[in-house]
Design a protein that fits this description.
Elements (H helix, E strand, L loop, with lengths): L14 H4 L28 E5 L6 H15 L4 E5 L11 H13 L4 E5 L7 H9 L4 E4 L11 E3 L3 H13 L7 E5 L6 H16 L3 E2 L13 H14 L5 E4 L2 H13 L7 E6 L2 H9 L4 E4 L2 H16 L9 E2 L8 E3 L22
Parallel strand pairs: 1-2, 1-3, 3-4, 4-5, 5-11, 6-7, 6-8, 8-9, 9-10
Antiparallel strand pairs: 10-12
């Protein structure tokens, strides 16, 4: 996933996702979403705060836009914080904690946060719940001791298997394949790779390399390029690469081109970002897998709204169903693929 970038960033409106919340936003392209006036709609000016990771992460941007669309279209207020230090531009979990604390201090009606790990934000969740603020997690099932109201995530292992199967379909039996893994300790990225490794074995592919030594700790193209260079130095005959996000595969493809190996290697990745879809169109990427950030943002906004309006009572880390649409984007469907910024109007707002 385009999730995490340690130095700068970490990494269609479906009726089921939207429910009583309309999909879309009436905000202008340059509006500050958090300042949208109350017009007496369903949310009636209630504030929902998203604690994200980084504005430069395409997936996180999609999530924030999805949450904002669901909230503001129904006359609620939206606010957003990240885990990026405003002075250095560096991401850290400590900075995300500070963003969560700012959210609590603002006394919002609900908080939604990007869960980087099962134990992430445990103390902050407890503090928010003690203040009677409902809390929902995105992209990760929290540990039992993290007392959120509910959570929503893709089936990461299943998506890893889908990508591995797509790669296998392009390669001969016994072909040498490897992975570019995500940030060490990021559960959702590891689940994706676990699913992929199991499918490699099932499809008779020969996995080479070491997951432990092939983490893209930056989560961006530069990190993917560095990991790919190391892979090519050790395994110049590798035939297939599964990168955990589109940013990583962008760098990996660049590294392969520089080594004159891009025509001999088939690449797949996950995210379904605009850049990933463009690479598929260009023929440089065999497939990407949509992680539905806009829809998941909308689903989380729906859950928060239902909780606030008494339509549902989410508690005890209730699992909220994710989008069920097939994630794979390849040459067969990329021309019809609706990019993230075509699913809801993307608006401009500042992280707090």
């Amino acid at each position: 996933m385009g999730w995490l970038k340690k130095s700068v960033a970490i990494g269609a409106c479906a009726a089921a996702a939207c429910g009583a919340l309309a999909c879309g936003s009436s905000s202008s392209p340059n509006a500050d979403a958090s300042a949208k006036p109350n017009k007496g709609g369903a949310l009636d000016g209630k504030l929902i705060w998203y604690v994200g990771v980084a504005e430069s992460s395409e997936a996180d941007k999609g999530i924030s836009q999805g949450v904002n669309a669901g909230v503001t279209a129904n006359d609620g207020k939206f606010a957003y914080s990240t885990g990026v230090n405003s002075t250095t531009g560096a991401f850290s979990l400590a900075n995300q904690v500070l963003g969560f604390k700012r959210a609590i201090a603002a006394k919002p009606d609900a908080i939604i946060y990007f869960a980087l790990g099962p134990e992430a934000m445990k103390a902050q969740v407890a503090q928010a719940r003690a203040a009677n603020i409902p809390v929902f997690a995105i992209y990760g099932k929290p540990a039992p001791g993290v007392k959120i109201n509910g959570w929503v995530d893709n089936d990461n292992q299943a998506q890893g298997k889908v990508l591995a199967d797509a790669l296998a379909s392009k390669l001969p039996n016994g072909a040498k394949v490897t992975v570019i893994a995500g940030i060490s300790g990021a559960a959702l990225a590891q689940q994706e790779i676990d699913g992929a490794l199991a499918e490699f074995k099932a499809k008779g592919l020969d996995f080479v390399g070491s997951v432990a030594q092939q983490h893209n700790e930056q989560g961006n193209a530069a990190g993917g390029q560095s990991v790919m260079r190391a892979i090519l130095a050790k395994y110049p005959d590798v035939q297939g690469v599964l990168a955990y996000n589109d940013e990583s595969v962008t760098g990996a493809i660049a590294a392969a081109k520089s080594a004159g190996a891009d025509k001999k290697i088939t690449f797949v990745s996950r995210n379904g970002s605009n850049a990933g879809a463009d690479l598929v169109k260009q023929g440089a990427l065999a497939a990407t897998c949509d992680v539905f950030p806009v829809e998941i943002g909308q689903i989380a906004a729906q859950a928060a709204a239902d909780q606030l309006l008494g339509r549902k009572n989410y508690d005890n880390a209730a699992a909220i169903p994710p989008p069920t649409t097939n994630c794979l984007v390849d040459a067969s469907n990329v021309d019809a693929y609706k990019k993230w910024d075509q699913r809801v109007p993307f608006v401009k707002f500042k992280a707090r």
